[in-house]
């Protein structure tokens, strides 16, 4: 089923390994084949991955946009294990993420990881408020 995408002026889109930047006007186009893509707003750059959950998101991004490798999958499992060890309350998020990854549903895993990043931020905020 074709997917219609609308881009804001100068918005960037990654399709597979290709980066596309829109021009100065809003535009729309249709993706007619199945492919992996992310909008600029859904991308965390390596320099922005300053927390454990953001680094997990970065790993999921690589798995989603590139051909998954055993090395990247192993890194995902190690990162998830470290998060569970540090904060067991993250278990529902991690369980969902690993389940989606096991099913090769990396986009769904990315979306769930965004929830995890928000949860991580709320934990950090509570910790800062209690100090």
Automatic annotation (TrEMBL):
Keywords: Bacterial flagellum biogenesis, Cell projection, Cilium, Flagellum, Repressor, RNA-binding
One GO term (biological process): negative regulation of bacterial-type flagellum assembly
InterPro entries per UniProt: Flagellum_FlbT (IPR009967)
Domain of life (superkingdom): Bacteria
GO molecular-function terms, A-Z: mRNA 5'-UTR binding
Pfam families: FlbT
Protein name per UniProt: Flagellar protein FlbT
Taxonomic source organism: Methylobacterium gossipiicola
